[in-house]
Write a structure and sequence with these properties.
The complex is a heterodimer of chains A (668) and B (302). Helix content of chain A is 67%, strand content 3%. With 668 residues, chain A is mostly helical. Chain A has a two-stranded antiparallel ribbon. In chain A, strands 4-5 form a two-stranded antiparallel ribbon. Chain B has one domain (2-300). The chains are: A mainly alpha (668), B mainly alpha (302).
Chain lengths: 668, 302
């Protein structure tokens, strides 16, 4: 039943794409119809996934396509867990799109956007329920290509084309690595199907190769730190609800792929977990540091995805270490942290991208230093963005805190067992704490610069609140963040279901998450905090207090202007300075020479360390080295025919019986 | 039951006294008479009775800032054991909540500061978040050490460790984290050498400049929250350096109060005999706290 509901949801997503394709290109009714189909796909898909997560059995059925060699699709708890964000953001995003990318305003680009949106959701769904390499790769490629067309929605802008180009290069390097991975998988296990290997053992060298291929192939998609180069540009220049989908859901497919592969290996070498944990820790600290250096609101959010993927990988690393060392508690805590953070990140990151979209829609700029004071004009967006900001910093009483808590428990757990032997691994805990503090700095910066203070530009002054169809998804997502934060006990059953297959070889059932973490105490404390807060509001900010309204304290200066406010760049400057060894900020300023200087200006920019620092210079050099090939490329058809002739001649000449000829010559 | 009541009363009423004692110590050092020890109570009482003046720039965040801060810090107060007495709420992992509640307070204090649109307050907020980036890892290294020595994940038993007597292998790490935590305490409560609570120039302040625009009851709440934060971090610190108890509650409560006041005298002395560091020197101090707590952890790794 649950698999049927998911398949129905997939069919509805495809029909939404088809409807968008055939209905008139500038009619808002057509857009509404396709959004209704997406919402019903969301309801059906969520129902199916939830049924599996709350206790229904796994289901499996053959994939009706002979070319794929008897492959199968199925729904187990891990698939169901990842289906939840796919359908949730798929449905809410299309509702958001009705206000954000209206067909009347974008007659040229709205239609392809809706078509590829539906295809993207269907591709993601196929990927997650696939149990065979062929179906998996089919879903993967549908996802990758629809995402490409979504990124270049505004293909008249150079920035979008460049971002799309880098994205497609990145994603196809990834898929090539995955081809190699699946071929090796076939060689090692004898089949293309993604099922646990029954009693077979793979040679250690092959295992290592499989692991590295999976790490690179899925790591590129997930945007793990050195492989994230395609991510900031693509997520910044796509339309905002597409960014929400890419950041909130599509990145997670890398995590899903790796988890699916690792769940099939019963006894991973210990070094895998340590490696993934270390990569995750590096990814989360550096991701947030790069985010702090950004001036573009959406680029900043994109770097935060790198950070959160780092946190997710830290949980995965802990779970792997638990599996290698046969520690059930560590498996449960690490995997619960990893999986719940997948949900949480998709909730608050989509919320933040929706919020950034509303700001962009209202003020027509993504530059934080040109915004300001929007909380007055856009109270709904400001309030929901605040929820997302507090949640992404991992602060109680919201959802981000809960998943980070699981990972902290995993990191601290090894210390409390007593006895000799403490490894260096818990050092990741202070790193996670630094990440939290940096994320806080970053989101205070964004929230303060965009929503608080006074508007810094005329456009920001004229901003208006987003339409209902844009506010509704934001409110739903904010409520979901609060719900998981105050009632974390609700997530126990889905998490236990999704973790269950990871039991140690020959071991007993894994302990329940609820027995390892005092979730009820956490929920109770969150409520206590809310009550305390409400009480203080009543006492100190009640209506009976006399209030007077004056300007802000300006130190006696008579004519303050909004441009004198502390900007986001100045706010982050001291931290950017602390991390200058990683960031290499470029600053362009006009030196002041005369006694009475004229108007001065100053620009600062933080490049991406991998893309702008390594890849582009490296490819430039490669281009320079291979420039002598150009003399063969004169554009003359005769030349090319000559080349073909020479090639064919050379190929045919390999057929000549050279040995015989030589033998005859020398025989004479 | 009675102990819980005393605990809550102490949390509610004791903190402003600490500010009075610190100020009195500084006055004595400077050869002044200084304000009465109970002056902070009078200040807060006066402020709470006033009306509010709000900046036309601000939104509800400005009002929420001090109130959420107070709730978060008061919530943290329920999690920490005081002297010989257990915490009101104790569960596995409460130390993480303790640390993150201070972060929640920081989020809302700094956001409220940015809400005024004033450059000064932005400057203070930027400094606050920057320095916390460095004090947070020091605190977490201290947690690692305490979790390792106590084999527990609850503040209540983690902080009991020094009271149980010192083994050979654990003395050095505890001394190191006590030193590191003292630096964190000074930084988090905005005392000299990190921040000067009595300075008069906005450009050189951290905490005081963030709350320039708050007045009346909101400012009273801020003063009280600052005192409460000092009280909580002080109680944490006392577990590390003065883990004494007699087993008799009638003696233990006054003993704790006396220890706390002695700590305030020490802070007052530190403030009197050292100068505030230049802003760009503060990170060095905090990094040394990270190194102290980090080396404490390394001593335990084997």
């Amino acid at each position: 039943m649950s698999l049927e509901l998911v398949l129905a949801a997939m069919a509805l997503a495809i029909s939404s794409a088809a409807a968008a394709l055939v209905l008139p290109r500038a009619s808002s009714k057509a857009q509404g119809f396709s959004a209704i189909l997406m919402v019903s796909s969301m309801i059906s898909g969520l129902a199916g996934a939830m049924m599996r997560l709350f206790g229904h059995a796994d289901s499996l059925c053959g994939f009706p396509w002979q070319a794929a060699g008897g492959s199968a699709i199925g729904l187990d708890a891990l698939s169901a867990f990842f289906l939840v964000p796919i359908f949730l953001i798929g449905g809410l995003g299309s509702v958001y799109g009705m206000g954000y990318w209206r067909r009347e305003r974008h007659p040229r680009s709205a239609r392809p956007l809706e078509v590829f949106w539906g295809l993207l959701v269907a591709g993601l769904c196929l990927l997650v329920i696939a149990r065979h390499a062929m179906a998996f790769l089919l879903g993967w490629e549908v996802m990758a290509l629809s995402a490409f067309f979504l990124v270049i929605t505004e293909d008249f802008r150079h920035e979008s084309r460049r971002a799309g180009f880098i994205y497609i290069i990145g994603t196809h390097i990834g898929i090539l690595v995955l081809f190699a991975f699946f071929v090796l998988w076939r060689k090692a296990t004898g089949s293309y199907s993604l099922m646990p290997i029954a009693g077979e053992t793979i040679a250690l060298g092959t295992m290592g190769a499989l692991f590295l291929l999976a790490l690179v192939g899925f790591g590129i998609k997930a945007g793990l730190m050195p492989l994230h180069f395609w991510l900031p540009g693509a997520h910044a220049s796509a339309p905002s609800h597409v960014s929400a989908m890419l950041s909130g859901v599509v990145l997670k497919m890398g995590v899903y792929g790796l988890l699916r592969f690792l769940s099939l290996i019963e006894d991973p070498p210990a070094i895998w977990g340590v490696l993934i944990l270390a990569l995750g820790a590096a990814s989360c600290v550096l991701g947030v540091v790069f985010a702090l250096g950004q001036h573009d609101m959406k680029r900043l959010l994109a770097y935060h995805s790198v950070e959160n993927i780092g946190i997710i990988f830290m949980g995965m690393g802990l779970a792997l270490m638990g599996r290698s060392s046969g520690d059930p508690a560590l498996i449960v805590l690490g995997l619960a942290g990893c999986l719940l953070h997948v949900w949480n990140h998709s909730l608050f990151k989509s919320l933040l991208f929706f919020g950034a979209g509303s700001v962009l829609h209202a003020a027509h700029t993504r530059e934080t230093d040109r915004l300001g004071g929007l909380a007055k004009a856009m109270p709904w967006t400001a309030a929901t963005f605040l929820v997302g900001a507090v949640a992404i910093c991992g602060l109680p009483p919201l959802n981000g805190f809960v998943s980070e808590l699981f990972i902290y428990f995993g990191l601290f757990g090894g210390l409390t067992r007593g006895g000799a032997g403490v490894s260096i691994v818990p050092v990741a805990a202070p790193l996670l704490a630094v990440t939290g503090a940096l994320a806080l700095a970053c989101f205070v910066k964004v929230y303060g610069a965009v929503f608080l203070g006074l508007p810094r530009s005329p456009a920001a002054r004229q901003a208006e609140e987003a339409t209902l169809s844009m506010r509704f998804p934001m409110v739903i997502l904010a409520l979901a963040c609060v719900l998981i934060g105050v009632a974390p006990g609700l997530t126990v059953l889905p998490l236990d279901e999704a973790i269950a297959p990871w039991k140690v070889a020959g071991g007993a059932r894994l302990p329940s998450l609820a027995s390892l973490v005092p979730l009820d105490a956490l929920g109770g404390f969150a409520l206590l905090l809310a009550v305390l807060c409400a009480f203080l509001f009543l006492v100190f900010a009640g209506k009976d207090r006399s209030r007077a309204v004056k300007g802000s304290w300006d130190c006696g200066y008579a004519q303050p202007t909004p441009r004198m406010q502390y900007t986001a760049s100045s706010f982050a400057q001291s931290i950017v300075g602390l991390f200058s060894w990683a960031l290499r900020q470029r600053v362009k300023r006009m030196p002041i020479k005369e006694s009475f200087p004229r108007a001065a200006s100053m620009q600062s920019h933080v490049d991406d360390a991998v893309l702008d620092g390594i890849l582009i210079p490296a490819f430039r050099r490669l281009e320079g080295l291979s420039s002598w090939f150009r003399r063969f490329q004169q554009g003359l058809a005769q030349d090319y025919i000559l080349f073909i002739f020479i090639t064919v001649f050379l190929l045919l000449s390999t057929l000549l019986p050279v040995k015989d000829i030589l033998a005859r010559i020398f025989a004479r | 039951m009675i102990e819980t009541a005393i605990h809550i009363l102490l949390l509610a009423l004791f903190p402003p006294l600490l500010l009075g004692v610190i100020n009195k110590t500084k006055a004595v050092f400077a050869g002044r008479v200084g304000p009465p020890v109970l002056q902070s109570y009078l200040d807060i009482a006066k402020l709470l009775r006033k009306g509010m003046v709000l900046s036309s720039t601000t939104t509800w965040i400005f009002v929420a800032g001090p109130l959420v801060t107070l709730s978060a810090i008061a919530g943290a107060g329920l999690l920490i054991p005081i002297g010989a007495f257990p915490a009101i709420l104790a569960f596995k992992g409460d130390f993480l909540l303790f640390a993150y509640l201070f972060a929640l307070a920081r989020f809302f204090t700094t956001s409220a500061a940015l809400d005024t649109g004033s450059s000064f307050e932005g400057m203070g907020a930027a400094r606050e978040v920057t320095f916390s980036v460095l004090s947070e890892p020091a605190l977490f290294f201290a947690f690692l050490v305490l979790a390792r020595i106590s084999s527990s994940l609850s503040l209540d038993s983690m902080l009991r460790v020094p009271a149980l007597g010192l083994a050979v292998g654990t003395t050095a790490p505890l001394v190191l984290i006590a030193l590191g935590f003292f630096v964190v305490l000074l930084a988090e409560t905005c005392r000299i050498p990190v921040d000067d609570p009595a300075t008069h120039l906005e450009l050189t302040m951290i905490h005081e400049v963030m709350v320039l625009d708050h007045c009346g009851p909101l400012f009273g709440v801020i003063l009280y929250s600052a005192a409460l934060k000092l009280f909580l971090l002080g109680a944490f610190f006392l577990h590390l350096v003065a883990p004494y108890s007699t087993g008799n509650p009638l003696i233990d409560w006054p003993l704790f109060a006396a220890e706390m006041l002695a700590l305030c005298v020490v802070i007052g002395v530190v403030e009197s005999i050292t100068a505030r560091l230049r802003m760009r020197r503060v990170p060095y101090l905090l990094v040394s706290a990270i190194l102290l707590c980090g080396s404490a952890f390394i001593l335990l790794v084997r």
